[in-house]
Amino acid sequence: MVIKTPIHQFTDTRNIHISLKDFLYISNLLSLFRLLIVPILFWYIYQKNYQLAVVVGTIAIITDLLDGFFARILNQHSELGIILDPIADKCAIGAGIIALAVSTTTIPIWALLTVIFRDLAIVLGNVYLAYRAKMITRSNWWGKCTSFSLAIALILYLIRSTEFPLPEQIEFYCLCVALAFVGISFVSYSRHMLRLLKTETVRQKTAQ
């Protein structure tokens, strides 16, 4: 079975317009709230207060689901949301995994490094893309699956740390699925970024 590459979208940085009204959208308020609770999540995990960390992490996942829901039903799509949502996701997941790796040895360090490498590569790629082609990439289906599966894996590791009975190694299996999405999304973003850069290079040569 051949898996078709999902349609990938880009945002022209020259057309980005963020107004005060965008900050009042329910979807964007939820993303801002998720971003604000990142230090709380990190602190609870670092202090090994895993019960409260599970609560905060679950709230973060719920807000991630709800911001997209409200953006669709209320037609509250905005450039701010396109930028803010993935930033909040990356910060929450990154802070959670780093804090868990520091506070306990149950989560593999190589998994942490894989996630950090992927996110750092995408961020730097977007910076270069914005410089060369005046574009930044939007989250696609693979990226959303990556964020959600990593969040679930993180919650399962936190629940395991509370000594709540879970099926054996379920958190590790979920992490493996998440890392598979990490790899797929990295390839997806890289392919579309390189394709856009190639197109922009051809355009610039033609214009000369």
CATH topology: Four Helix Bundle (Hemerythrin (Met), subunit A)
End-to-end Cα distance, whole Å, is: 44 Å
Radius of gyration: 18 Å
CATH architecture: Up-down Bundle
Percent in strands: under 5%
Helix residue percentage: over 70%
Low-confidence stretches: 1-8
Give me the side-by-side strand order of the main sheet. Answer: 1-2
Overall structural class, as computed from helix and strand content, comes to mainly alpha
The largest sheet, given as strand count, sense and whether it forms a barrel, is: 2 strands, antiparallel
Number of helices: 7
Shape: globular
Order of helices and strands: EHHHHHEHH
Give the integer mean of the pLDDT values: 85
What would CATH call the class? Mainly Alpha
Number of domains: 1
Number of DSSP-assigned strands:
2
Description of the structure:
The protein is mainly α and 208 residues long. The protein has one domain: Four Helix Bundle (Hemerythrin (Met), subunit A), CATH 1.20.120. The chain has a two-stranded antiparallel sheet with strand order 1-2. Helix 5 packs parallel to helix 7. The longest helix is centred in the C-terminal third of the chain and has 38 residues. The radius of gyration is 18 Å and the shape is globular. The relative contact order is 0.14.
